């Protein structure tokens, strides 16, 4: 059975006249262009340990199939604000899984996109844990409820934002959680 034991987070931005080359450039900026990335849904595995990007990259070989949760966005509209964000919510109970969320908005700052993704991951985890909360409240209000429940130990996000190239080149942003055996 394959259950990832380690995870690292990375992000990047790329620009190019071609859409695909812009994506490749963002992968290079995130240092994950050498791998065959397979996207998976958004569960933070039980017992999975976060490691630094550099340590995770040392374990990978070019061409290796690598599972990831990825958020990406692209535009060729000059000055259009784009973002990609991965939100993370981990439970206090180490025998329980957590959540990763992907968010890829237009017109949101990196901070707003990160807060939204973090809120989404924490809300998904909270419903799994049976925490009673008002889904219509602002993230900072819900965050307090989640922390006071003492059932959610950690939330964070990794977010990349950018403005579309002023000359109309494709601009791509990506955020990724890389899962390792």
UniProtKB/TrEMBL annotation:
Class in the EC hierarchy, top level: lyase
Claim: Lyase is one of the keywords in the record: yes
GO MF annotations, alphabetized: arginine decarboxylase activity
Alphabetized Pfam families for the sequence: PvlArgDC
Enzyme nomenclature, EC number: 4.1.1.19
Catalytic activity: L-arginine + H(+) = agmatine + CO2
GO terms under biological process: L-arginine catabolic process
Keywords, comma-separated and alphabetical: Decarboxylase, Lyase, Pyruvate
Cofactor(s) required, per the database record: pyruvate
SUPFAM superfamilies, per the entry: Pyruvoyl-dependent histidine and arginine decarboxylases
UniProt cross-references to InterPro entries, sorted A to Z: Pyr-dep_his/arg-deCO2ase (IPR016104), Pyr-dep_his/arg-deCO2ase_sand (IPR016105), Pyruvoyl-dep_arg_deCO2ase (IPR002724)
Record-given protein name: arginine decarboxylase
Organism of origin: hydrocarbon metagenome
């Amino acid at each position: 059975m394959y259950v990832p034991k380690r995870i690292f987070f990375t992000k990047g931005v790329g620009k190019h006249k071609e859409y695909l080359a812009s994506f490749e450039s963002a992968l290079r900026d995130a240092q994950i262009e050498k791998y065959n990335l397979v996207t998976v849904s958004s569960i933070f595995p039980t017992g999975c340990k976060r490691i630094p990007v550099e340590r995770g990259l040392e374990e990978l070989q070019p061409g290796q199939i690598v599972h990831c949760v990825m958020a990406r966005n692209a535009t060729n509209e000059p000055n259009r604000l784009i973002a990609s964000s991965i939100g993370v919510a981990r439970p206090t109970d180490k025998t329980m899984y957590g959540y990763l969320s992907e968010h890829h908005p237009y017109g949101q700052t990196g901070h707003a996109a990160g807060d939204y993704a973090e809120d989404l991951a924490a809300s998904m985890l909270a419903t799994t844990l049976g925490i009673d909360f008002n889904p219509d409240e602002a993230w900072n209000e819900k965050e307090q409820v989640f922390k006071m429940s003492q059932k959610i130990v950690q939330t964070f996000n990794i977010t990349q934002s950018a403005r579309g190239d002023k000359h109309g080149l494709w601009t791509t942003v990506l955020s990724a959680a890389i899962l390792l055996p």
